[in-house]
Design goal:
It contains seven helices and no strands. The protein is mostly helical. It has one domain.
Length: 198
């Protein structure tokens, strides 16, 4: 009975933690980006930052789809041969729900918020806050939305087609980051779960 209550409570707790974490992450990153753009960055740097944030959102969306679509057996084979990054990739698959939620919801929403805020800052620089430029404002919003949605649509087919390779290469990145920092970024020893064989 107690375990059933804990299972019912866990999704709510995860959702609440994710929502609060996303709020404060978006708030802090939004403030920092606005400060950076307003005081330090040139128009070109602001535009490059906007493109980078859109690309980050697309990349994490690809990861979220890939971990949901990938299969464990090919990665088991690589882990058995002690291929660098294979164990980290298995951890990603065995925690696919959390990884996908973080990649698609947290990072995706934060990137969407930031790209909108940076787009507004770029627009303000272009038109100086004049009310006559509603068409420019609309075009900026449409461009950001088009790039984001179009990029994610293109990335989705790639993620489904190359799911295992994407997860493996993200695992390799985690592996090399761990080697570089000397810290364990993920609890690899606590990854026991039934494998997905089909």
């Amino acid at each position: 009975m107690g375990s059933t209550k804990n299972r019912n409570r866990k999704p709510w707790r995860n959702a609440l933690t994710t929502g609060i974490g996303t709020f404060f992450l978006a708030l802090s990153l939004g403030y920092l980006s606005q400060t950076f753009i307003g005081r330090l960055a040139s128009f070109l740097v602001s535009f490059i930052l906007l493109v980078v944030i859109i690309l980050i959102g697309i990349a994490f969306d690809i990861l979220g789809i890939a971990v949901a679509a990938a299969l464990e057996p090919p990665l088991h084979a690589r882990a058995a041969r002690k291929v660098e990054g294979a164990r980290e990739a298995l951890w990603l698959l065995r925690n696919a729900d959390r990884v996908a939620s973080f990649a698609n919801d947290v990072v995706g929403d934060v990137c969407a918020t930031l790209s909108g805020a940076i787009g507004a800052s770029i627009l303000f620089r272009l038109v100086g806050g004049s009310a006559q430029d509603i068409w420019i404002s609309t075009a900026m919003t449409a461009t950001i939305s088009g790039l984001t949605v179009g990029g994610k649509a293109l990335g989705k087919s790639f993620a489904l087609r190359e799911a295992n390779e994407i997860v493996f290469w993200v695992g390799r990145i985690l592996y090399f980051l761990e080697r570089l920092t000397g810290r364990s970024l993920i609890p690899i020893n606590n990854t026991r779960r039934k494998g997905r064989s089909s």
